[in-house]
User: What shape does this take?
Amino acid sequence: MKRIADGRSGAPEVPPLIALATELRLGERPPRMDQLLWLLFVRQGRGRVLALIRCAQHAHRQGRPRLTRWLCRRLQREFGCYVQPDSRIAPGLKMPHPQGIVIGSGTEIGRNCTIFQQVTLGGARMGDWQDGRYPVLHDNVILFAGAKLIGGVVIGDGAVVGANAVVRGDVPASHVAVGVPARCLPLRVGADTEA
Assistant: This one.
């Protein structure tokens, strides 16, 4: 199983302000402090959500629990989403409607993933699938509104999880998971729908 690079795998870590500027497309140079403060306190939408998440993750890695808690609470209050700062999130995350999104502490999210509102990515600590592991999303995954991924499920590259699906098992690459409990169907891109 491939692991998602987040700076802990031996690769040189990009300074967080430069990574944030690259992800939000603020320009070639590192952002000035006024740009960062503008992102955190003034700007609305996707950029602000990602800025709060990245700053909370950086503060967590630096061992600053009070700042981490403050940023996470601000994210909860303003956007209604809860992201654990020790989750591993690769660049390119899109959260068009962040209301109600919950991302657990051990979750790994690959590059260019899209997560819509009310999605839960959590660990199974009770019940039938008690394993204490968290979901792993590979690159280019789309999770539609209300999807629930509980436990150590692995979602392959380019997979799609339908709205309100409850995923209890792995989803192969280029497949769609739909239903409660979710069943996997091959993803048909550009197929002729008339029969």
Notes: The CA atoms of residues 177 and 183 lie 5 Å apart.
